[in-house]
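Technical annex B. To support the medicinal chemistry partners, we prepared a structural model of the target in complex with iron/sulfur cluster, based solely on the information shown next.
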Amino acid sequence: MPASLLTTIETSALPFEPYRTTPVAELEARIRSVKAELGEALLILGHHYQQDEVIQFADLRGDSYKLAQMAAESQLCRWIIFCGVHFMAETADILTRPEVDVILPDMAAGCSMADMADLDAVEAAWSDLSDVIDTDDLTPVTYINSAADLKAFCGRHGGIVCTSSNARAVLEWSFAQRKRVLFFPDQHLGRNTARAMGIPLAQMPVWNPAEPMGGHSEAALRASKVLLWRGHCSVHQMFRPAHVAQFRQQYPDVKVLVHPECQMSVVDAADLVGSTEFILKTVNEAPAGSTWAVGTELHLVNRLAAENPDKTVMFLSPMVCMCATMYRIDVPHLAWSLDNIAQGTPVNIVKVPDETTHWARVALERMLDVK
Ligand code: SF4
């Protein structure tokens, strides 16, 4: 069970099981009814990777960064239902007013990338590194796709959070403070961003937490500029340069647009790389008749194609690359969590402990201040 899940499911709460077999139309009617009943006290946030059946009920949509901002700015609500994954709900809890409860409809909706770096492993790495380099001159940078206690680690050690929208600005901020960065958990975002800033690959060793000293010599660590954690997104790592080549062969006018969580060889083969919001803006503003192959999560690409019928928008892989954990948030779980709010037995409240909240907020606010 995640450390931030403080609430228990009360025995008087409605059980989930009957929702599995209730007709979807009935569940959807129930969701609409509770939304109407709670009015502005309820805010449903939906991540772009969410399935259509769920996103139709979102009051606001966004990527991790935009949703974090929206949560921070929410002034009227008492309840936030977060249709995303666990770290996003934690971030919303950290940034919202204390009286707001953030609910994740299915607590099993995690993020495989976030799970690749945990606090014990990062603290052990920090301790090992302190034997070789001056950690007062090392900025820990965590991608927003990480647990709250890692954000707090960054807050305590002069570090910061980044997203795929602001990773470059955050690295520039970091290098203005100190000469080295420890970047976790996504090696690809770290590498793609740092390389675009002109940092040589030779100065970006990948820290393997399973090996002594991350698998590197002291000399290599001393020569490093960005230490990349050995983590990745299981969805974005599915894209390959060969997929890009196939599309170029079949559609000579195609523009290939990928997310920076893709591996470097895919980014190199693409025409454009950018965050989820960048991908949406680029395709939405593209001229009619243009052709796009997009390397990011499947639900987002399918929705983008449906919303841009005057363009050809295709998914950059023959395989189904969808975020399986986010897919756990479905209509039955959404209806179940709303019904429980309505009857006064809220379930799945994500509550980050106060000390962690304080330091994670320090790191998040540093990020929100970076322009
Ligand atoms: S798409 Fe990848 S990084 Fe994003 S939530 Fe899913 S597993 Fe995590």
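Notes passed to the chemistry partners:
The longest helix spans residues 354-369.
The chain has a mean pLDDT of 94.
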